[in-house]
Write a structure and sequence with these properties.
InterPro entries: Glycogen_synth. This protein is of the alpha/beta class. Helices cover about 50% and strands about 15% of the residues. It folds into three domains: about 5-270 and about 585-605, Glycogen Phosphorylase B (Rossmann fold), CATH 3.40.50; about 275-360 and about 430-580, Rossmann fold; about 365-425. Helix 14 (about 325-340) crosses helix 22 and helix 15 (about 365-395) packs antiparallel against helix 17 (about 410-420). Bound molecules: 6-O-phosphono-alpha-D-glucopyranose (G6P) and ligand 1S3.
């Protein structure tokens, strides 16, 4: 275990756009890590983010405590800033400072001027860049006040301050703090490079081309020059530069021009059950809920054996190529062909869960589910009545016939409901009416691949273009519950700095496929030689053509489909047992190392040396 004596003696402040505000993966990083941070640093740890009333009203509690963070916030407030200090209502209850930068909009012109004058970065007219610059100045003001408050503490508590900044949106304060010579050690973490994400999304040879990309020109061509400049200034200005995986470290070195000093793999806050059967029971429970959705969706057109049906899924932000949705769909088409060729009696239902622009849930899809629910209620009523009749027959000492148990009126009611429910066409491939149906990349590829949910096709698809919630009238499951009910998560990303989805599957006891171009995939390839045995598969994408990767993925899917129930139960046990390794209690050590590095680079710089590792 990494042993840092410094860390117990520092004030650590993490700044990010996603504090108390879920937008993407960084929220998961900060929130899941909070208990590990406060366990060690207690109230010497604080997070800073922008104030967003809608989410703050749920996730944040303003407090009136006596901490240097509260005092610094009060000083800033006295000078006119709108700033809230309190606790994030998540496990670990860390201290949080939320800055309402929009309330200081009168300062935007001045901030943009100084950002251009001092750092030669033109914030331009883009609203997001302007927000980031204004927030950056307010964050820098906060750190200055914090320094002043800490200087007033008794000598024994006057520890150094470490400012840890995430992503370009949280990193604009770094060059400002450097320019003002504020005496704090800084860490910058990029969770993806802006330019890399743009370039990878439409260049199938991105990784091969990486060493020869002219980053400045490419950023200009893509119209993201000012964001790129902020990211680069943060990466170069920080005492310690970090990223989340080896893959992104190489990308950052080429595109941002600095090799990260430390890699900070992402973790989770793992909660394991004491008994193995508990999570297996949950699989069964939520699989039943998925079965019900599947019956409601498919059975009005045709039926198949649910006991021989496997549920695959992919999920993530709608970055169609980056998240490997294109490869998944292509592989499903090839899988369909192979299963037909083998005359397999297996059915595969593949879910694609993302968030795309939609009008509403499709009326036909919803109607079918509602009618199925009515049928279920009728069955429940009849079964209650049957229990009464069975008891009556048993009390008479009589063996009942089906007519004794099921009245004619009930039989008729069931038949009528079933007839009304049946439909002529095939089940929809998409659960929603899309806003841009003709241009939607997933829909178009499903059409091109002829994945239409035809009765003779063993591979069925359900494209759910909205994130899952327990209150939805379709599946009625939260994401975690849905994952538990499936058999395999498939995430063959092309661009994925880390990728939480396969790791979450492991924590929930579900096997998954990631890719060797995902940070998590390359991490398990290095750290876990027996990852396949453990139900963590890695699809090869690095330096492989799309076609070869699709064939590799189909082979992986085919061998999974051939597993029997016992194999799958054992595999779920094995995959769940790996999850301890991904706990923040283990992985937070890398943060302590980065913080130590920042302190030593910072001290060296103070003495007139270089910030770079020597
Ligand atoms: C869990 C349950 C078992 C069930 C099994 C189904 O292990 O505890 O009762 O038989 O899941 O597994 P399968 O992979 O076929 O969904
Ligand atoms: C990023 O979020 P994304 O899905 O845009 O940060 C995440 C947290 O580090 C990371 O898991 C993901 O790969 C990145 O892409």
């Amino acid at each position: 275990m990494y042993n840092s004596c410094r860390m117990r003696e520092a004030w650590v402040v993490e700044t990010a756009w996603e504090v108390c505000w879920q937008l993407g993966g960084i929220y998961t990083v900060l929130r899941s890590k909070a208990p590990a941070m406060t366990a060690r640093l207690q109230d010497h740890y604080c997070l800073v983010g922008p104030y967003n009333q809608a989410t703050a009203s749920i996730e944040f509690e303003e407090t009136n405590e006596d901490t240097p963070f509260h005092r610094a916030a009060a000083e800033l407030a006295a000078k006119g800033a709108h700033i809230h200090c309190g606790r994030w209502l998540v496990s670990g209850r860390p201290l949080v400072v939320l800055i309402d930068f929009l309330a200081s909009w009168n300062k935007i012109a001045e901030c943009k001027y100084f950002f251009w004058k001092d750092h030669q970065i033109d914030a331009g007219d883009e609203a997001e860049v302007n927000d980031v610059v204004l927030f950056g100045y307010l964050v820098a003001d906060f750190f200055q006040q914090l320094q002043a408050q800490i200087a007033l503490l008794p000598e024994a508590e006057r520890y150094p301050v470490i400012g840890h900044f995430h992503e370009w949106m949280g990193g604009a304060a770094i060059p400002i703090l450097k320019k003002r010579h504020v005496g704090i050690a800084t860490v910058f973490t990029t969770h993806a490079t802006l330019l890399g994400r743009y370039l990878a999304s439409d260049d199938p040879f991105f990784y091969g081309r990486l060493p020869s990309i002219d980053a400045y020109r490419a950023a200009g061509d893509r119209g993201i020059y000012n964001r790129f400049a902020i990211e680069r200034a943060a990466a170069h200005g920080a005492d310690c530069f970090t990223t989340v995986s080896d893959i992104t470290a190489v990308e950052a070195e080429h595109l941002l021009g600095r090799r990260p000093d430390q890699v900070l793999p992402n973790g989770l806050n793992i909660r394991r059950f004491a008994a193995l059967h508990e999570f297996q029971n949950l699989h069964q429970l939520y699989k039943q809920a998925i079965h019900e959705f599947v019956m409601g969706h498919f059975y009005p057109s045709y039926t198949f054996d649910l006991d021989k049906t496997l549920y695959l899924f992919t999920a993530g932000r709608y970055e169609y190529r980056n998240k490997g949705m294109d490869l998944f769909i292509e592989s499903l088409a090839r899988l369909n062909f192979r299963l037909k060729e083998e005359k397999s009696d297996q059915t595969v239902v593949a879910f694609i869960v993302t968030k795309a622009p939609v009008r509403a849930i499709s009326v036909d899809v919803l109607k079918s589910q509602m009618m199925f629910r009515d049928l279920k209620h009728t069955c429940e009523r009849i079964s209650h009545r049957m229990t009464e009749r069975l008891l009556y027959s048993a009390a008479l000492g009589k063996v009942p016939t089906i007519e004794d148990l099921l009245e004619e009126s009930s039989q008729m009611a069931l038949k009528r409901q079933h007839h009304a429910w049946r439909r002529q066409g095939w089940p929809a491939i998409c659960t929603h009416d899309m806003l841009h149906d003709a241009e939607d990349a997933v829909l178009n590829q499903l059409r091109t691949c002829h994945l239409y949910n035809a009765p003779e096709d063993p591979v069925k698809v359900v494209y759910h273009p909205e994130f899952l919630t327990g209150t939805s009238p379709l599946l009625g499951l939260d994401y975690d519950q849905f994952v538990r009910g499936t058999h395999l998560g498939v995430f063959p990303s092309y661009y994925e700095p880390w990728g939480y989805t396969p790791m979450e599957c492991a924590a929930l006891g579900i096997p998954s496929i990631t890719s060797d171009l995902a940070g998590f995939g390359s991490y398990i390839q290095r750290q876990m030689p027996d990852h396949e045995e453990k139900g963590l598969y890695v699809c090869r994408r690095n330096m492989l053509s799309f076609d070869d990767s699709a064939n590799h993925l189909v082979d992986q899917l085919m061998s999974f489909i051939k597993t029997n129930r016992r194999d799958r139960i054992e595999m779920r046990n094995r995959v769940e047992s790996t999850s301890d390794q991904f706990d923040w209690n283990v992985l937070v050590e890398n943060y302590w190392k980065a913080h130590d590095l920042s302190l030593s680079f910072f001290e060296r710089l103070q003495k007139g040396g270089s910030t770079k590792a020597e």
